[in-house]
Amino acid sequence: MKNLYQLTYSQIKSGLNKSEFTSVDLVNSLYDRIAASEPKINAFLEINKDKAIEQAKQSDERRKNKQQLSDCDGIPIAIKDNICVTGEITSCGSKILENFRSPYDATVITKLKEKGFVLIPRANMDEFAMGSSTENSAYQTTKNPFDTSRIPGGSSGGSAAAVSAGMAPISLGSDTGGSIRQPASLCGIWGLKPTYGRVSRYGLVAYASSLDQIGPFSNDLEGIADIFEILQGADPKDQTTASGKTFDSKNVKSKDWKGVKVGVMASKDTESSPGVLKKYEDIKQYLKDQGAILKELDFSLFKHSIPVYYLIATAECSSNLSRFDGIRYGLRKGGEGKLEDLYVESRSEGFGKEVKRRILLGTFSLSSGYYDAYYGKAQKARILIKKKYDEFFKEVDFILQPTSPTTAFKIGEKTKDPIQMYLADILTTTVNLAGVPAISCPAGLDENGLPIGVQLTTAHFKEEELLSYAKSISEIPGCKITLPENIN
């Protein structure tokens, strides 16, 4: 039998329910893997085995007494460091919150506890979720399990790397402009960005409130379906949540592509590396051979998505992070002299370079005389992008694109050029601007052995259809990815 950390989510779920092993056995196996791999990966900011073992013991006792909370009782899940867990530090990868312990649970954490999951906080992340490589954490750079000289993606790089390296079968991340899908692609796993409002943001430390969405990573699709089913639903604590159609994971079944209309990009429009482009073209041809109707869509409007996204996101981050001032929340420095000096010293020392850059950009775009010229125009362009998606989904059932234009790049390769770093999100940001759901599916390896992902997108509240056809993509020859056993 495989080591327990090598099992997929669905194998773990089945094994626990058949009493083939206990939750304590599983957690011990995962922490053995963490002990061996974490020094090379840096996926976690904190590793508290004792707490995880205690939760696992409680789960085993419930199962022994036939009082398990769900079929998922006892399954470990890693938690991104911007999702609040009672009594745990929630630092958002920042110095300004390095000693903040949450006094409450996020709604998603409450739901996971109600089902008996074993929580493993805190997965590393780009500071306040601002980044595409997890190089902006105030503490450490997370590395890609397929090649530790490369980035895992961001901002949820710790959550993705933990699953890819076998340190957790599933994890939670947050997606503002691709921060679940892009690291899922670069780490060779599954990552879902749900319809905006489908999952409560209560207890998620906000970066850009109109774009943020919590979602799952998993080493198989069943993990994505199960976690999303648990997390979905309206929440009185978050007025942006929507009830919509209820998602049922039992309805996620592999579907036939015959007659399905799939919107695709022309090769010249993908701006992708040769390895990514070849895999994308191979998948397009496979779908066509299976009877799918491929339609090239006009994505020219989406070329403006990066400036539109960054104007809106930075404006919202400027507003959201204003409360971290050394008085109400966070690190306090100074205190002598003027009140303004306390603000300046606390924020100067507490925030990193990228966060300061985005606060400055957002404050400028919201300032008197520039609001209409920048932020106002960006909001108008956002409406046009949403309308374009509405038009697309009148013509096609799904849109298929590469998730990332390249495979994982080298650590340090883009840190000195913020524009090139921002362009890493060029294929994912429009999904957040429009609020539609999308999933990154493993699509095989390139010639260098690095993972490639493809992004499948559909209309609002159609996650059942999205995951069913994503399952079909996983069955395409050459798309299966074996996660690395040896971390180098």
TrEMBL record:
Region (Disordered): 139-158
SUPFAM superfamilies linked to this entry: Amidase signature (AS) enzymes
Catalytic residues (UniProt): 80 (charge relay system), 155 (charge relay system), 179 (acyl-ester intermediate)
Keywords (A to Z) from UniProt: ATP-binding, Ligase, Nucleotide-binding, Protein biosynthesis, Transferase
Short name of one Pfam family: Amidase
GO CC annotations on file: glutamyl-tRNA(Gln) amidotransferase complex
One GO-annotated biological process of the protein: translation
PROSITE patterns: AMIDASES (PS00571)
EC number(s) given by UniProt: 6.3.5.7
UniProt keyword Protein biosynthesis present: yes
Function according to Swiss-Prot or TrEMBL: Allows the formation of correctly charged Gln-tRNA(Gln) through the transamidation of misacylated Glu-tRNA(Gln) in organisms which lack glutaminyl-tRNA synthetase. The reaction takes place in the presence of glutamine and ATP through an activated gamma-phospho-Glu-tRNA(Gln).
Stated family: Belongs to the amidase family. GatA subfamily.
Protein's UniProt name: Glutamyl-tRNA(Gln) amidotransferase subunit A
Organism of this sequence: Leptospira idonii
Gene assigned in the entry: gatA
